[in-house]
Each structure stands twice: as structure tokens, then as C-alpha cells.
Fold:
Amino acid sequence: MRYLIWISKVVRGWAQAWGDQQVDNYLAFYSRGFLTPGNTRRTEWEAQRRQRLSEPRFIELSVDFLASELIDDGRGWIEFRQGYRSDRFEDTVNKRLELIREDGV
Structure:
């Protein structure tokens, strides 16, 4: 049960940084080894994320947890349904995040 608290705390922090448009905090949730979508360069992906988080007047996120598993003491995954709404776009998707503890975080 403790792992579920750890995983849900991380996801809620990630979602809060995104919703609060705190770009540096949001990006800090991504591992140094994170594989970017489409294998774009990390710097390009981060620039795109900075733009997408900064441009809307507001961002609202909702997270409804579906399933999770602790793989070992420092790794786990979580699946959730994410609602996204801003002044520019609205969407609901299912996501799966793999979480890795790095440097005690």
C-alpha cells in the first residue's frame, strides 16, 4: 500500500506542476533517461513542452487512478485517466507512466 501512496504522490505532483504551468517543476519530473516521443532530441521536446505549458491562459487537469504496480523498491507504473482543459484545447485520455526513483526522488 505504501507504494501506491508514493506513486500517486508523484503523479499528483506532476499534474499539479503542469496545471499550475510551472514548467521547470513539470520538466523536473522526467528522468534523465526519459525517451521522448518520436525520439526527438530532448532539448526540442523540452522547448515544445515549455511553449505548450506557457501559452494557455489556464490549464486544468484531472487524474483518476485506474491501476498501479510496484516493480521493485525504486520502480513502478501507474495507469490513469487524464482530463485536460485549457482555453485552447480539451481532451480526455488514458495514460501509463513508468516511475523510477532517481537520486532519492
Q: What stands out?
A: The chain has one domain: 2-100. The CA atoms of residues 56 and 87 lie 6 Å apart. The radius of gyration is 14 Å.
